[in-house]
Amino acid sequence: MQMKRLSLLVAGLAICLYLIPAQAETGKLATPNVSPELKAEFPQPYVIKRGDTLWGISERFFKDPYKWVKIWEGNLYISNPDLIYPGNEIWFEDGKLVIVKPGMKKPVSRPKKTVVTQEPEGWPTVKLSPSVREKPVEKLEAEVDTSLILNALARQDLIRAEAIQGVGHIVGTEDERINFSTRDRVYLKLGVPAEDGDLFDVFRTGETLEDPLTGDEIGILVSHLGQIRVTSQSGGVYRGTVVKAFEELGRGDRLKPARSIDLKVTPVYPDGNLQGHILYIRDFVSEAGQHQVVGISLGDREGIQTGTVLSVHRVGKVEEDRVTGEDVNLPEEKIGELIVLVPQDNGALALVTQSNISINLGDAVRNQASH
């Protein structure tokens, strides 16, 4: 009799265990196919993000990250375990993780966008998780080295002809010295009001930059000699202190409000078909390389702005074909890239950011930069 009662009790428990999952299904509770190798919590699905690798995914889902081999074995289309792509989805299915590429049929046995948590005791619960917002892949532009911009603009500028006189000049100093340098006190005449602490660039005018092909005046090249900070004013004469001196300053050197150099230059890639050329290389040398300043024949009128990225090309030479005896025009080749720093109406100063060979006067400038 006791054996019979025990058999009935076991049968009753079996029926209960059979019925309870059906109730859970009716109540929309997801029953996880939990593996002891997995961590307790995982999303359904996990959308692969930029920078993910199978090792990182395994470390997130498996208690033992070396189980990534099991993932790879279940996804044999992955020839390289580091070549998985943003947008692929990962599902937990039949005791393993399944990576679903776009266009593949997704597993249907799991509710979408849920997180399944296995409690130590009691029934599993289903928690809502945030939905995934998909965005197009965005290219991150390479940063521009700000130290190069500082070096390029601190010593040279391109100004319009009407700005050649500046806003004032150095009158002299307390003694009879001819030249001045850092920390020297000087007297200034200014054509604009100034307050204590105002900063002025000291400059000397150089050559007038012209386009040798068109004769257009591009601007006036000026050399920056240093900077002076106003300290006080008396009777229309300003006192100042030399705070920077790149070379010796003298009486009569011109002043202009110190330029604020924007170091956050954002690369801009223009549309359309731009055609220009190299018309100047700093210090009037014949060749330029990476990190040197050049002048180009494209400016404001072509929509050029600070940060515009352009390509430099070498026109192919004419080569005699020794077989046929005919002259052959060799194709044009890209030899470098540059970024515009100071645009003017008819031209601009630019910094060479890369070059394969030396850049010469007359080399073509186009908007075919890599991006």
Keywords:
single chain, 371 residues, Thrombin, subunit H, 6-stranded antiparallel barrel, disordered N terminus
Care to give the gist of this entry?
13% of the residues lie in helices and 37% in strands. The chain is mainly beta. The protein folds into three domains: 30-119, Membrane-bound Lytic Murein Transglycosylase D, Chain A; 146-257; 275-366, Thrombin, subunit H, CATH 2.40.10.
Structural class: mainly beta
Query: What does the overall shape look like?
Result: flat
Q: State the helical fraction.
A: 10-25%
Quaternary assembly: single chain
Q: How large is the radius of gyration? A: 36 Å
SSE order, as H and E? Answer: HEEHHEEEEHEEEEEEEEEEEEEEEEEEE
Low-confidence stretches: 1-33, 109-117
Mind summarizing the main beta sheet? 6 strands, antiparallel, barrel
Number of DSSP helical runs: 4
According to DSSP, the number of beta strands is 25
What fraction of residues sit in β-strands?
A: 35-45%
Strand order of the largest sheet: 8-10-13-12-11-15
Q: Could you tell me the mean pLDDT?
A: 76
Q: State the distance separating the first and last CA atoms.
A: 86 Å
Structural domain count: 3
